[in-house]
Design brief:
mainly beta; eleven-stranded parallel β-sheet; 0% helix; globular
């Protein structure tokens, strides 16, 4: 369980099938690696609701081209901006994957399975309060 705050990861994040990761008010800043979540991982993360990193859940450094894979399991909920501007992102649903307020920014993205996003994330910069948006 992560406390609220900014977590700077110098390498990669890898969550295996039986991993549990919880946190509210969390931003994961990935400098050089990527993110790999296996299908059986239980992930419940929400981005900060105020401050410099408001709305940002995962931020992969610009220029970092490491591919990331977020595979849903039986209980995964992520809310916030998933920012992978220079990399490919695989976003694959499981049986109960939900992203209640999520915006995906990636160089390229593959969305497969039961992936579900109900609304765009609200950040200090977007002011978006609902709907799903695809920017190409």
């Amino acid at each position: 369980t992560r406390n609220p705050g900014l977590y700077i990861v110098t390498g990669s994040i890898s969550l295996g099938g039986q991993t549990t990761l919880n946190g509210s008010g969390v931003t994961l800043y990935i400098q050089n690696g990527g993110v790999s979540m296996a299908g059986g991982a239980t992930v419940n993360l929400t981005a900060p609701s105020a401050g410099t990193w408001q709305g940002i859940l995962m931020y992969q450094r610009r220029g970092n081209t490491t591919e990331s894979t977020l595979v849903g399991g039986t209980g995964q909920s992520m809310s916030g901006v998933l920012y992978f501007p220079s990399a490919h992102l695989n976003y694959t649903g499981g049986s109960t994957v939900s992203a209640l307020a999520t915006t995906i920014v990636a160089d390229t993205v593959t969305i497969v399975g039961n992936s579900y996003i109900s609304a765009a994330a609200t950040t200090a910069y977007t002011g978006i309060t609902g709907g799903v948006f695809l920017i190409e």
